[in-house]
Amino acid sequence: MSGRDDLGAAGRRVLRGARWPGDVAIADGRIVGLGDVAAEPGDEVLRVDGDLVTAGLVNTHHHLYQWMTRGRAVTCDLFTWLTTLYPVWGRLDVDDVAAAARVGLAELLLSGCTTAADHHYLVPRGDDTVFDVIAEAARGLGVRLHLARGSMDLGESRGGLPPDHVVEDLDAILASTQRIADRWHDGEHVHVTVAPCSPFTVSEELMRSSAELARERGLRLHTHLAETREEEADCLARFGRRPVAVLDDWGWIADDVWFAHGVHLDDGEIASLAAAGSGVAHCPSSNARLAAGACRLNDLLDAGVEVGLGVDGVASNEQGTLSTELRQALFTARLRTGRADALTPRDALDLATRGGAGCLGVADVGRLEVGARADLVTWPGDDLGDVPDPIAGLVLGPDRRARHVHVGGRPVVRDGEVLGLDLAAAHRELARRARRLWD
Asked: In the list 220, 238, 359, 403, which could disulfide-bond 308, CB 3.0-4.6 Å?
């Protein structure tokens, strides 16, 4: 966590004067007061007059390493995009991923994200310290990390999509996952998740073994599911079944699993996810960028499926910000259904906070209520004085960066600056590393 954070004698920090929801008091890492909070001796007061305070946003699906290949393969569908970028990603090293993680997590913080799930499935030349540098970057910046130890073991020579030189050996994957869980999983700042990449990059044996390992260790599971029609066709050709049926047979349709995308689901599959308690990470900008389709968000929600928002990789969502996904989710839902009331601004905020926390299986983040963890974002409200509903202004108005961000009551962004990081220098280092991959 960044810097010192000494509170006053009362042990409270009070964000005072917010237009919405009013004052917010923090003590011992949790919210202890909302609305009109009476002053106590020794309070440390942070004036946020006219601003908006929300719970920290929860990013349920990301690929931080893809900051190294932003703005490439911009006219491709998913499979063409992957086959174009796999050879480039195969040239990354651990230091490249560390540079991408620092920039990616800092930009997420500035977009109001206090909890991020990073699905990392590329292990340069078998060096699994790549996961250590991602966790170290998150610890240094103060963001909560759900570190999804991704994997691929099904290369082209065995009928998979990725080239053989970017996949790993099954036994090495399982041993590495154990090591990473032993070192990093603390259930508070870092949650380790077992996360084979997708049905078209992973063997059945790895999918089954990963589920067994996760349940032995009490870890959650994550993978891509039903993102494109091409994935559906691949599963039908190889297994004679659609992706949900395949994963159900492998023991993956369960309440300790959340899936990325879930675009191409039929009514029965949605009902199966709801009955099992599985969640879905909705990534509307990436799905649009890759022409994958529009997730049946309203149908998922109506069925009772837990849905959160995800940025996805910055090679398919060049902004890399979570706050912008609220507006995109709202627009996508309305376009898909033809209903102007399909998703309200407050619904969108709920997806990005409470819904995301539900997907990740954490109950006390993503909530602006007494007793919840004090993961808070203060948004500039200077330009919203003419907007009757400040949440509508936040979601539908101009893009904005967070003014202040607290994680567990500790400041990690102050006055629009990420604490403990020279972000401009980090971007320059990332650009230097990315440019060598342009040939």
From this structure: 359
Distance CA 14, CA 9 (A): 13
Q: Do β-strands 57-62 and 144-151 pair in parallel, antiparallel, or remain unpaired? A: unpaired
Rounded-to-integer distance, Cα 424 and Cα 83, Å: 32
264 token code pair:
């191409």
In 3D space, the residue among 90, 139, 89, 145 whose CA is nearest the CA of residue 115 turns out to be 145
Q: What is the pLDDT of residues 65-121, one digit of tens each?
A: 999 999 999 999 999 999 999 999 999 999 999 999 999 999 999 999 999 999 999
Q: What is the DSSP letter of 4?
A: -
Q: Domain ends where: 305, 326, 360?
A: 360
User: What type of residue is 31?
Assistant: I
Condensed to tens digits (0 to 9), the pLDDT of residues 216-245 reads 999 999 999 999 999 999 999 999 999 999
* Residues 301, 327: Cα–Cα separation, whole Å: 17
Which tokens is 323 given?
């706050």
Give the residue among 309, 314, 348, 2 at the shortest CA–CA distance from 143: 2
The closest alpha carbon to 242, from 208, 267, 260, belongs to 267
- Which domain CATH number covers 392? 2.30.40.10
Phi/psi at 135 (5° precision): -65, -40
Number of alpha carbons in the 13 Å side-chain half-sphere of residue 38: 1
Length of the chain: 439
Check residue 157 and report its DSSP letter. Answer: G
**Residue 77 domain-assigned (yes or no):** yes
Whether residue 199 is found in the same domain as residue 322: yes
Domain assignment present for residue 433? The answer is no
Q: Examine residue 386 and state whether it is found in any structural domain, yes or no.
A: yes
- Domain hosting 397: range is 13-55+366-423
In a domain, 437, yes or no: no
Please give the helix or strand (H or E) that residue 198 lies within, else none.
Answer: none
Instruction: Report the number of distinct structural domains present in the chain.
Output: 2
Question: What are φ and ψ of residue 17, in 5° steps?
Answer: 100, 10
- Residue 10 pLDDT > 90, yes or no? no
Q: What are the strands of the beta sheet with 417-418, ordered from one edge?
A: 52-55, 376-379, 404-407, 410-414, 417-418
